[in-house]
Amino acid sequence: MLATASAVAxxxxxxxxxxxxxxxxxxxAEVELLRAAExxxxxxxxxxxxxxxxxxxxTTPEQRALRLRVKRAGYATGSAKVIVxxxxxxxxxxxxxxxxxxxxxxxxxDPYLVTVGRFFDPPSGANVxxxxxxxxxxxxxxxxxxxxxxxxxxxxQLTFVECTGxxxxxxxxxxxxxxxxxxxxxxxxxxxxxxxxxxxxxxxxDPYGVFGPDTSVVNRDVDIADPAAVALDADTYAHMLxxxxxxxxxxxxxxECVDICVAAEQxxxxxxxxxxxPKIISDQREFCAARTENARLLP
Length: 299
Known about the structure:
5-stranded mixed sheet; 5-stranded antiparallel sheet
């Protein structure tokens, strides 16, 4: 007796291709659907970033694992997992995010990453593209080693990365950049004045969207000629340190949040002696302390 062939039916996988940093559609991307190395269907994303792939596939009840692979010049390859059962995909539509090459170079995989993006030149036209590197090095020199001396949750160790290719043109995209780069906080900004020293406005984005697009700090008299001499405003340090607590709050780990806030208060007193504790830290400390039974951590 001849073996009965598996029944097949038309299966449709659709979705859209999105720029991870801006949520804008990626137009003209090549979209492939693969089972292992076998290409089942190929298509392109249209002017709205949407794609639709139609192919014949067996309707057996077993789950089949497939993969979308998306390519386009200027972007790192994107992918998404697709599970098909009885000829039906597990989602109505799939969003595939693509990371621009300029950002992909900055992804390090460090769990506590602070990424310093582009600072825009002042109206005078002076080129300050090097400012990102100076600030990243200054923060590594000033902040990271002193923070490690404090009582912190296990494994919390800051890494600062320069990424001049991270150049947001809208403050609304700061959280997107943080998520795309895998950063706990993303910093960018502009130079308001120049001279022997700089007045620098820093903007902050975090992957949880806690910081709004108008969250910023003005740092006056910033000397970028020597990273060892760079001194930023206490509020700039405070925003970076509070951003570290957002992951713990999201996971209900409020005691660790209190630990970080206490360490941040101590550190800022050392870096900016005589300045009051920035309100963003004291507010976050109170918020987390109210949600933990570990009140003994408060002095």
